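INFO batch 0412 | record 1 of 1 | parsing
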Amino acid sequence: MSTSSESLEPAVAAQPVHFVSMYQKRTKIYARSVRGLYARLRWAIVALTQSVFFGLPWLDWNGRQAVLFDLDAPRFYIFGLVLQPQDLIFLAALLVIAALALFFFTALAGRLWCGYACPQTVYSEIFQWIELKTEGDRHARIKLDKQPWSAAKIARKSAKHALWLLVALAAGFTLVGYFVPIRGLAPHLAQAGIASWPAFWVLFYGGMMYGHAGWLREQICNYMCPYARIQSTLIDGDSLVIAYDGARGDPRGARPRRTDPASVGLGSCTDCTLCVQVCPAGIDIRNGLQNECIGCAACIDACDDVMQKMDYPTGLIRYATSNGVAQGLGKAEMLRRVLRPRVLIYGALLSAAGTAFAVGLAMRSPVGMDVIRDRGVMARLGEDGRVQNLYRVQLMNRTERTTRYELGVEGLPGLVVDGSRVFEVPPGEVRPFTLRLALPAEAAQSLTPGAQPVTLTLTEQGQTSAALREHSTFLVPR
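INFO prediction complete | emitting tokens
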């Protein structure tokens, strides 16, 4: 046995050892600029979203910032709507509506949100445009990166990163301006410097924007965003996605311009790879729909441009359904399959949630009232024999004007508010008050000892009907 082991040792030692990395190094993507219908549409959405984002915090409404999420107060102002912590149910409803809308539009037409309106896509588009203007298009950037460092290369790279940082810090400043009054934010930063929370958040969000849109780009979509992983559960064969028509395009190959594909035994695809060069994710859509595809339609614009130059019909790469491409269906036939169960279910849930949200906002009272009986003093007798109960009342003024309210009580004969019954609450404020109810001795003796149901009413001064009614109990001692 020892001899056999010794004879095997040289053979084992002679075999080379290979180390396999479990991580693949990222290949930098040099996306080529593209023009076309969908490129114009993306830039129109970029202009719209950024006009709203950068302009909204500067709008005034009733002498204040129109949209302000004041976490110190805490109060959320959205034009004429004032939300308080007790109204966070509306924020939860908005999140549910957003999720249902994402499900609905994904089932209907794939990753429209990712391709056109997602902040990651929008700012990556802006940063790529800056890159185009400072370093040139795809081949110029590849050539520049391969060159040794020089004064010209340093100048171009520095200009690009300086503009990236400027846009990122502007976005960070604006985002913080939704939580801190934006008109006073710049003077505050100039006075406090970086030693303040607003400055920290401006730098934090600006740095995140610079890293995400400038450096990480498609890696955010591929590895950090869960949407790419769940989209396969939301779409089916009749969802509208970006598709390559393999039956028409294959076999691929180069040929002179305006050559009839059938005469050379080829399909319409010239194998120019422009669809790959313009893709911000670096994928080849001709290999089928992939998780990395964000649905930006840059490949459609590039392919249509080539088809026009070749004098071929456009639409080799187009918005279509998987079943439509496989079965050769026309647009009308694909549209007829839109109303299918999953789309109807998502649409019904979205409509129900949106209707409930709108009705809830419309029926929301301009004032809120919470009543808690003081448990530290169960009940007490006054000098004149009256039975008294104390209550903690919290009034929430959801309007933008100072309002005076009058508290009353119903439910027991002779029960009255003892002391002040008129309370003033500033706009958007939540104020606690102490309320004392008193019951005459004669009325108390006629009641069974224990808790008696009562109703507190809240009426705005100048109004005849009660704005709110809150049920509570009045304790009659033994």
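INFO post-check: Confidence is low (pLDDT under 50) at residues 1-5.
INFO record closed
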